Amino acid sequence: MNHRQRIVVVIGLGVVLGAFGEWVSSWRDGFGWAGYAPLSQATFSPPNGIDPWIRLVIWLALAAVWTGSSVWLLRSSAGSESP
Q1: How far, in Å, CA of 11 to CA of 22, rounded?
Q2: Are 28 and 47 in contact (CB under 8 A)?
Q3: How do residues 26-39 score in pLDDT, each as one tens digit?
Q4: 48 pairs with which residues across the strands?
Q5: What CA–CA distance (Å, rounded) separates 24 from 55?
Q6: Can you name the residues that pair with 36 across neighbouring β-strands?
Q7: What's the CA gap between 1 and 73, in Å, rounded?
Q8: pLDDT digits (tens, 9 = 90+) for 2-31
């Protein structure tokens, strides 16, 4: 795999990790018709989602994975000459 292909893989990995991070950090977010209880006095509220510090840990872990894999993919090979 040449250097340009490795750059494309790094960018694609970043996009995939970003989409995965959005999906994971949106677990337990309220959606849908959850705030209305017809013909009753009970009030229902949607869940507030996960704690902000857990979202931070998720994003920091994904950033570390992306950085580590980028460094590994873009390292110079032992037999290649520098550009």
Answers
A1: 17
A2: yes
A3: 876 655 555 555 65
A4: 29
A5: 8
A6: none
A7: 10
A8: 999 999 999 999 999 999 999 988 876 655
